[in-house]
Amino acid sequence: LSGISTCLASARSQVQSPVPKKTHLKSISKIYCQAILKIFVLLQTFRDPVNGSRKGTKETVLLNSEETIPQTKQRIYFSCPPQGLLNKVMTNGIILFMSWCLLLVFLGNEVLPNGSLFGLVIIFYSACVGGILLQLIRIPPVPPLPPLLGMLLAGFIIRNIPSIAKHVKVPTWWSSTLRSTALTVILIRAGLGLDPKALQQMKTVCFRLSFGPCLVEACSAAVFSHFIMDFPWQWGFLLGFVLGAVSPAVVVPSMLRLQEAGYGAEKGIPTLLVAASSMDDIVAITGFNTFLNLIFSKGSVLHNILSTVWDVLVGVLIGIVFGVFIQYFPSEDQEKVPMKRAFLILSMSISAVLGSQYIGLHGAGGLFTLVLSFTAGLKWATEKTRVQKLITSAWNFFEPLLFGLVGSEVSVSSLKSNAIGTCVITLCLGVLFRILSTFALMCFAGFSFKEKIFIALSWMPKATVQAVLGPLALETARLTAPHLESYAKDVMTVAFLAILVTAPNGALFIGILGPRFLTRHWDPSKVKLHLPALEGH
């Protein structure tokens, strides 16, 4: 160390001495090279235990290192008893087996093949595996496909393999209740996902995007289904509103990825599509409930319209009252406030949806859920995100059940010979009019030509709402009007095909066209746009 300090002092004196520039540079570089050499020798002294002249210092350093740095544990691959991953797999397997044994003791034949719970568990786990397998399929230039497509195909495969289908049976009322519960969770997430600030900033464009394409697709699908599929006008509009909803499960995660990369963030395109997706679902569900009541309710058309208006008023008013109640109960001084709020919203909403169907107010439960969740979230501010995460956890459980059950409703053997062709034509024409209307409605909104094309193609994916509304029409027809079941089966088939066709194509369009058609902000980290926590919705 003293040699190094001597070299540095000599270099300092050389800098201060009046010498020619060339000699000055040579002397300084020579002295600094000597200092670097001495540092290198010093480091070698500490590292080499044989040649080091400062062995005691080295041993002291090593002793301190051994005391302060923990030893790295060696990975044990084979041991008795097993440890690590093998132990974890065996433990989880034993837990699942013992859980099945306990259910067998309490429920008996329900957990055996041909039992209701056995069929439900098989569909659930098959849907989970299907979603995971689809996520594992990665082609480098192609964006990831939504896992819900794998869940849908898993249920479809189970239904159409006779050796499996005869052992997997789920009661109709179980399937109906689970789908209604899944719809409730979707509505809660839609209500919580509505951002008042984003709606206020882009209210004109957002409302145009929420109402216009949905209504245009519903009307065009009604016309095409009437002339192509021989649907009555009421069934045509019901089919139109089934198709009219966009899927936030596809749109929102894709938009979040683009926003994080800075694409379109400067003009707020991701925020616009995320906020409008929830409103679009609300319009579609409201229109579907209206025509469902018109089809299956007895009485005059005027009576049905008045009953629908009554359902809307009851749902909105009671939703506001309970929403204000949850704003203050539980209070902030309690423990686990987000968990209590999530439980209250879920329990009240599920009770309202199932209870309104029981007493005959079919449209009131859904509107109650939307208004309740939106009103409650107005006062929660930052705590709203925690509640959304808990609701997302509930959705992660119901998502495989929903899409697995929807896939299991479609039987190839029961389809008519020309049903798939007419359903695909009606679906494609309705989606085409939706894309054209979206492009037209985005004119004079400050977007470029490429951005309008991107928004129009991003507004076509369908999944979650179709998975609920299609089977709901079929279930209602089976219970109240069996002679209308043929129309309901066609609605179910179109809903299934809509998910199968538009969900993967929409995800591909967003992932491929986004980086090419949207302007990228130079510093995405400085773009502060509030996006609701709606991933997976």
Automatic annotation (TrEMBL):
Which ranges does the record mark as transmembrane?
89-109, 115-136, 148-165, 206-229, 235-256, 268-292, 312-330, 342-359, 419-441, 453-474, 494-518
Where is the Cation/H+ exchanger transmembrane domain positioned along the sequence? 127-504
Entry annotated with the keyword Magnesium: no
Residue ranges annotated as coiled coil are none
Q: In the UniProt record, what gene is named as encoding this protein?
A: SLC9B1
Q: Which UniProt keywords apply?
A: Antiport, Cell membrane, Membrane, Sodium, Transmembrane, Transmembrane helix, Transport
Q: How does it sit in the membrane?
A: Multi-pass membrane protein
Keyword Zinc-finger: yes or no?
A: no
Q: Which GO terms describe its biological process?
A: flagellated sperm motility; proton transmembrane transport
Q: What is an example of a GO molecular function annotated in this UniProt entry?
A: antiporter activity
List, alphabetically, the GO terms of the cellular component aspect: membrane; sperm principal piece
Protein name (Swiss-Prot/TrEMBL): Solute carrier family 9 member B1
In terms of one coarse class, where is the protein primarily found? membrane
Q: Which residues form the signal peptide?
A: none
